[in-house]
Amino acid sequence: MSESGKTVRSLETALPAPTEADNVVYDPSMERLREFSEHLETTTEFGAPSYVSDERSRNADLTENAVDADFDADDYAYVEAAFAAAREREMVCVDRRMGRHDDHSYVCRLYVPKEYGRIALAWAKLFEPVTDDDPDPDFVTVQVPDADEIAIRILPDEGITAVLGSDYTGEAKKSFLRLFMYYAKREGGLGLHAGSKRVRLKRGGEGDDADGEGDLETVGQAFLGLSATGKSTLTAHGLRLDDPEEATMLQDDVCALLPDGTVAGSEGNGLFVKTIGLDPDEQPALYDAVTHESAVLDNVDVADDGTVDFDSDRYTTNGRAVIERNQLSSAGEDIDLDGVDQVFFITRNPVMPPVAKLTAEEAAAAFMLGESIQTSAGDPSKAGESIRVVGTNPFIIGSKGEEGNRFRDLVADLDVDCFVLNTGHLGGRDIGVEESVTVLREIARGTVEWTDDHATGLTVPSEVPGMDVSAYDVAENVENLDEKLARLRTERRTHLDTFEDLDDEIRDAVY
């Protein structure tokens, strides 16, 4: 038997049942979890706990999985070290259920040292409690923040993750969501780093106010974007709709697009949202949830007297809060979207219009390009730089080219409309939340008129009710446009050529 085979076999029986282990506190209450880390807590003016961690973002460059990397004895030794800590140290063990869909619901088990109960406290608020009838865990993560070396190692097919040397809550969260997406792909769907929402409104722009449920139609929207590009803001936004019209947030971070068009959700209880620059006027629903006593703040500037400063980057620009869904007014009770009609790729590329409509092949190219701006959630040292991440998803396991092919096939088979949405700047012109919200609402309503833009070759709006689209003409706003577009297309083609498994039709669809 190989070294890896022996290691995996030993790990399957490495941890006793947490209810039988003398060193493990199993599924303590939220109050007890908070008590375990009270020496690390600052209480906010709202009564919520706030913590500052040593690691304040994910360590993507120190993360490896056994599908994409050739694991050797050293890699398995990291996993063994994490499990040894779980057997020998005072630990907290928490079980939660991720997802509600019959075929995409998993029991997740997290171990952390008792003094780091704050990690379990925040993580436990994201997912739903298990029941007495739930089976043994599908996925297990052991996080040992005070290990001497930072290393994250994943055994995807065994559902095991070891997090060593990092006390960042986001590592625990993503350890399970990463596997949620991987298993969706194994079963014919596609995991997406995306938010989802259900919009109920009067379609077609007839002009009369909707006067009853029978006049409303449902539109399913999904938003793919890197952290801090506006994904949470737009997913949670009510789109300025008046009753009985409504926009309901279903998921904020990770979903699974299934072959029947369902978008299965993952997080049933909470959301892990960015707080830097949180504005009560532009993001009222998020602000109210973040400033509720049920929230858990992570690396936010909180003074000794509890005063919170969301504009401060004292610790990081990646300040976070775990909020409960029932405190977010725009969140629905459901987490699964019954059918997706529109997919938006959020970018901050300054030569892109506020929105452009894409063919299925162009959408797959956009998926592969994953153009955005680096944020502090990924690599703080490169924040603000241009970046390309396939699917705007840094958690893909397996062939990235196959992900693009799968995405193209799914949106083509399901007849999904796809768009690229710029939430940054066009040349020197700002594209604000109000402009993006107007675009999203009117696309959902079906009132946007489209035309071919000869300057860019893109399909762009010629008319959007409530918005002067002429002010966002790309040629009028971007200097040296032809030169910039030529360079951009060359860079895009070069990038797509790095994916051997990607279909040629997608390579040739560079826009």
User: Which percent band covers the strand fraction?
Assistant: 25-35%
Shape estimate = globular
User: What kind of sheet is the major sheet?
Assistant: 8 strands, mixed
Count of the domains: 3
Stated plainly, the CATH topology of the largest domain is called Phosphoenolpyruvate Carboxykinase, domain 3
Structural class: alpha+beta
Rg from alpha-carbon coordinates: 23 Å
Count of β-strands? 30
The poorly predicted ranges are 1-6, 206-213
Structure, explained:
The protein has 511 residues and is an alpha+beta fold. It has 3 domains: 3-36 and 59-167, Phosphoenolpyruvate Carboxykinase, domain 1 (3-Layer(aba) Sandwich), CATH 3.40.449.10; 191-266 and 338-507, Phosphoenolpyruvate Carboxykinase, domain 3 (Alpha-Beta Complex), CATH 3.90.228; 270-327, Phosphoenolpyruvate Carboxykinase, domain 2 (Beta Complex), CATH 2.170.8. It contains 13 helices and 30 strands. Strands 1, 4, 5, 6, 7, 8, 9 and 10 form an 8-stranded mixed beta sheet that branches. Helix 2 (30-36) packs antiparallel against helix 4. The longest helix has 18 residues, at 169-186. The radius of gyration is 23 Å and the shape is globular.
